[in-house]
């Protein structure tokens, strides 16, 4: 597998699949992916990768700038470069031939499959039948194996579907979504964490104003969030949870009433919709 543009997200994915390959070797099993190539743009970036993955250099090759060569030598290509570099990378001479018959996985924001295909195939040419592009959106929790990755469903050989799902399962959970729902699914997988951080900051501020130290408040709130996540994971509906927490004339219903007065629910809904629309605009 070649990772084109192995920065923060590419490195997180690489960490996950390298660890899985190491476990397979330890169990004397055939690893799903045996060799890795990571491309970067500078010698300093290359050195950082070699240092970070120093124990895996027998299976990992780090190269500078030779994206086409890395594509030629791989069966699976992961596009993890900056989105603005996608056209330069994919329109380069030799890329179309290098990708023929292969699986291309893109984690580029605002880059629909049709847009990537347009970069690969020259204007006026018929679209090739044997380049399979899979689109995915993950979040920064991939760095420690707790990402939620939204994977766009698209027609392709079963073995490509299987290996795509396996790769992202090494950095967290996966959720397949239809192409027309990828943007909104991506918002819930990625930007939603930033939205929630605003709410968390507000609660921390309130706790500090009422006398708690911020570090203590953060510890309490973090565990409360983990508890909430576990309840949701078990199938509880948010509305049911609110009802269970709310007793007549109690503290919870008082706080919920305050949130409703300030239209917080609408504000979060609006943020999700706005982010999804922006993703669609970027992809045009």
Q: TL;DR?
A:
The protein has helices at residues 8-26, 43-52, 67-72, 86-90, 95-99, 113-120, 158-169, 182-189, 192-209, 214-233, 238-245, 251-261, 264-282, and strands at residues 2-4, 36-40, 60-64, 76-79, 103-106, 132-137, 147-152, 172-177. With 284 residues, it is α/β, with parallel strands linked by helices.
Topology of helices and strands:
Blueprint: E1 2-4, H1 8-26, E2 36-40, H2 43-52, E3 60-64, H3 67-72, E4 76-79, H4 86-90, H5 95-99, E5 103-106, H6 113-120, E6 132-137, E7 147-152, H7 158-169, E8 172-177, H8 182-189, H9 192-209, H10 214-233, H11 238-245, H12 251-261, H13 264-282
Parallel strand pairs: 1-2, 1-4, 2-3, 4-5, 5-6, 7-8
Antiparallel strand pairs: 6-7
Pfam families: F420_oxidored (PF03807), P5CR_dimer (PF14748)
Domain Pyrroline-5-carboxylate reductase dimerisation: 180-281
Protein name: Pyrroline-5-carboxylate reductase
